[in-house]
Specification:
The complex is a heterodimer of chains A (260) and B (270).
Chain A (H helix, E strand, L loop, with lengths): L4 H23 L9 H14 L1 H33 L1 H15 L7 H8 L3 H26 L2 H9 L4 H38 L5 H10 L3 H29 L8 H7 L1
Helix pairs in contact in A: 2-10, 3-4, 3-6, 3-8, 3-9, 4-6, 5-6, 6-8, 7-8, 8-9, 8-10, 9-10
Chain B lengths: L7 H21 L1 H14 L11 H13 L2 H33 L1 H14 L8 H8 L3 H25 L3 H9 L4 H38 L5 H10 L3 H29 L8
Helix pairs in contact in B: 3-11, 4-5, 4-7, 4-9, 4-10, 6-7, 7-9, 8-9, 9-10, 9-11, 10-11
Classes of the chains: A mainly alpha (260), B mainly alpha (270).
Chain lengths: 260, 270
């Protein structure tokens, strides 16, 4: 990293905010609920030492990983099916059109009662909310595949499975990833709400514990972990996408955004 | 020939109507089918009806609480919060995105905040918002503002940057001053992107308001859902979910209508 004017400007606001936050915190000007960055780091260390942090991280990570995977796989399969087969499309379209407008978190009390306060309720509602964006993206992507590509492949004697895996899926992949990325963002939102509203473990629980016991440093430690987890999840997804879509993103706005 | 023979024209219209009805039925059969299966499953005692009340009971709850205005009141609160946060984010976000696209200094200062902050689940910050703004409406509006600001700024930023320079040059060549270029060239060229940003942000606003109301409040649809689920009266929970869906659908349609009116030169396939 070269230290030119642009780099300095890039880092200016985040670092200035942290420094001002710390300084004002030490001077005692900030209200108590805004723990200073050093206190948050200390709280993170404390949580790491007792091992609580890793237990909570593991619980949250497990829920989001399983729920997101289940929802994404289901969304891709049903979405591709809906794109290819009018029968499947006509069955799912009205249901999705109706359910898509509803924040899936609204179903949370029902899921909590059905599956309890443990992992199952979080995993199922994350899967449920992740299904929709992925379904819509894959359904539209398949329908938007250039017919000429399919016809050319057929003309050269490719059997339907080959056409599906070598033509339709690669052509639909960019849109699929867009849907999956939205699904991942939803997954973290739902995870947070689910853990805060009804849970016995996880990062959300650390946050609400910190609030209850007026340990704002603990609350912020949980918030920081949650934010980092969501950010890393998105970056991993983007890295996977860059691998899978090699050559399909050159010169696009997204590539530009990703380069940042 | 008797007069009772239907004329060919009438027969054709009838056939057309039948075909239309059939295609409508094949397109929309799944919702009534699902409602029927639901009703039968509950009616036969296969599913415990306390958890999954029959559609008829949900309908009753919906009609009752819409009738006495309870649901309308809570829906009004939720929509008011969502729209206020959303409109504030639009008013501030769109000009800000334009400034980011125009000025290198502003871009360098804020780009990292928006692009690295974008994938961060900002919902985790909500507890802090409740301390700063209190548990009621202000913290919900402030938080909705933050959540809507990100998609609006990021999408509009790309929209403003994507405005072709030759359009601006042509306008300048024709003697247009800065204000005219902004109003007549840049803004119309970026308008489709502005609308896609707004359309991403609008459902986010509703989701966020409902979640934050579920976490802690005494009014709003999120509160309504929480309170009735703690009373194990799930018919009302489903009724509220339906109302949320209708609000979301209505707002999205309004957004599409506005886009249709304002971006009349470029239609979007819905």
């Amino acid at each position: 990293m070269r230290l030119n004017a642009a780099t300095v400007q890039n880092w200016l606001l985040p670092i200035a905010t942290l420094v001002a936050w710390e300084a004002l915190g030490r001077a005692g000007i900030l209200p108590r609920y805004l723990s200073s960055p050093s206190a948050i780091l200390a709280a993170l260390w404390e949580l790491a030492e007792t091992g609580e942090l890793f237990v909570a991280l593991a619980a949250s990570l497990y829920r989001v990983a399983v729920g997101f995977t289940v929802g994404t796989v289901a969304g891709i399969i049903v979405g591709l099916g809906a794109g290819l087969l009018p029968g499947v499309r006509h069955f799912f379209d009205p249901l999705v059109a109706f359910l898509y407008a509803i924040p899936k978190v609204a179903f949370l009390p029902i899921f909590l009662l059905l599956f309890g306060l443990g992992h199952a309720s979080k995993i199922s509602i994350i899967a449920f909310s992740g299904f929709f964006p992925v379904f819509i993206a894959s359904r539209h992507a398949v329908l938007a595949v250039n017919k000429l590509l399919v016809w050319s492949a057929r003309n050269m004697g490719a059997p339907p499975p080959t056409i599906f895996f070598r033509v339709v899926v690669p052509a639909a992949a960019p849109q699929l990833f867009a849907g999956i990325r939205i699904g991942l963002a939803h997954a973290f939102v739902v995870l947070f709400a689910a853990e805060l509203i009804g849970s016995k473990a996880g990062l959300g629980t650390i946050i609400s514990y910190g609030e209850e016991w007026v340990r704002f440093d603990l609350m912020f430690a949980g918030i920081v972990c949650f934010a980092v987890l969501g950010f890393l999840g998105d970056r991993i997804l983007l890295a996977i996408r860059a691998r899978v879509l090699k050559g399909q993103m050159i010169g696009t706005e997204e590539q530009e955004a990703q380069a940042l | 020939m008797s007069v009772h023979t239907p004329s060919p024209a009438l027969a054709q219209t009838l056939a057309q109507t039948l075909t239309q009805a059939w295609s409508l039925a094949t397109r929309w059969y799944s919702i009534p089918l699902l409602l029927l299966v639901w009703q039968l499953a509950v009616g036969s005692g296969l599913v415990e009806s306390r958890l999954l009340p029959s559609p008829v009971r949900v309908w009753d709850a919906l009609v009752t609480d819409l009738g006495d205005g309870t649901l309308l009141y809570h829906a009004g609160v939720t929509v008011y919060r969502a729209l206020t946060g959303f409109v504030l984010a639009a008013i501030i976000g769109v000009p800000f995105a334009a400034a980011m696209a125009r000025s290198t200094l502003i871009r360098n200062l804020f780009e990292p905040i928006f692009f690295f902050g974008y994938p961060v689940p900002k919902i985790a910050l909500f507890p802090v918002f409740t301390y700063i703004f209190g548990v009621g409406t202000p913290s919900k509006i402030a938080f909705t503002f933050l959540e809507c600001l990100y998609p609006i700024v990021v999408t509009c930023y790309f929209g403003f940057r994507g405005v072709q320079t030759r359009l601006i040059w042509s306008a300048q060549n024709c003697g247009a001053d800065r204000a005219t270029v902004l109003r007549r060239v840049i803004l119309p060229a970026a308008l489709p992107s502005i609308f896609s940003g707004l359309r991403i942000a609008l459902p986010v606003a509703i989701i966020v308001v409902v979640i934050t109301e579920m976490i802690g409040d005494s009014i709003g649809l999120g509160y309504y859902i929480t309170i009735w689920s703690t009373r194990f009266t799930f018919a009302n929970v489903y009724a509220a979910i339906i109302v949320i869906g209708i609000c979301g659908l209505a707002l999205d349609q309004a957004m599409l209508l506005a886009r249709h009116r304002l971006v009349y030169w470029q239609r979007e396939a819905v």
